[in-house]
Amino acid sequence: MKTLTLAALTMSALATTGYASTLETVQQRGRLICGASQGTVGFGAPDSDGYWRGLDVEICRAVAVAVLGDKDAVDFVPLSGQQRIPALQTGEIDILPRTLTWTLQRDGNGINFTTPTYYEYTGFMVPAELGITRVEDMDGAAVCVQTGSTTEVVVADVSANLGLDLEPVVFDNTSATRQAFFSGRCDALITDAAALASVRATQSDNPDDYVIFPATPYMDALTPAVRHGDDQWMDIVTWSIEALKTAELLGITSENIDSFADSDDARIRRFLGTESGNGAALGLADDFAANIISELGNYGEMFERNLGMDSPLQLERGANALYRDGGLMFPLTFQ
Prior knowledge:
By secondary structure, the protein is α/β, with parallel strands linked by helices. Helices cover 36% and strands 17% of the residues. The strands form 4 sheets. It has a 5-stranded mixed beta sheet, sandwiched between helices.
């Protein structure tokens, strides 16, 4: 598996500008090309062996299983906040799952959002020694922010709404933004709260030296995106993600999936593809969802190993639990 630069993807971009559908292009190439973060443990980062891991990464792997039958038939392209949407629009990548907030203007300007994979609020992280635990006490604070992200807008809105006179200190990539914060260039770092938890747990000398609190009372839907203009590909990505949530709702895991092979439940049979129709509607094998779960597990399994109690971050499910458990994850119907 490779990590690619944008410059290495020119021919792939050209391949998607002709008449071939994205599915055809990916299958002919034999690889899925995914946008990735520049290193956020839990969401997307290579491990010590160079193998990419994280929730966003596994979303790409689920799509690779659906269309190529191989979770490792994926190349990851690290992208900054500024690079990520143009890379998708120009065909340099096939899917962008990189902690992307679903907004109206993004949706209306060249990309399509599929289905949310993570719900989160935007947060501030500040040194505990400052004694700041809420946004109202941040008057005059310098805030490290990455350009090309929705957090630029949040800083401006919060500053104006609360009269805080915040000073945005803007950087063009993730690593520079974080490095500036830890070096003391800024009083606060702003991004999605889970990403802040990741940074605090994996990049600080002592996580207890930093506190995280909400920047606003609002929650965002982080949602993988595809290009406008290819409805089949949007459907494939959407339902590959929905397979993860539906499996959890049905109680199907990577470990017990074989026990459902002879299920009398028609909904389960349709989900597993033993009753035909769902895969064919997408141009895939009828057992595409079963293959995804066999290879990667359901959404709950993904969450726990990347972000939850089985990970260094040990985050609670919270809003990312299924609706039956008080969360916002509502699986759609495989029918």
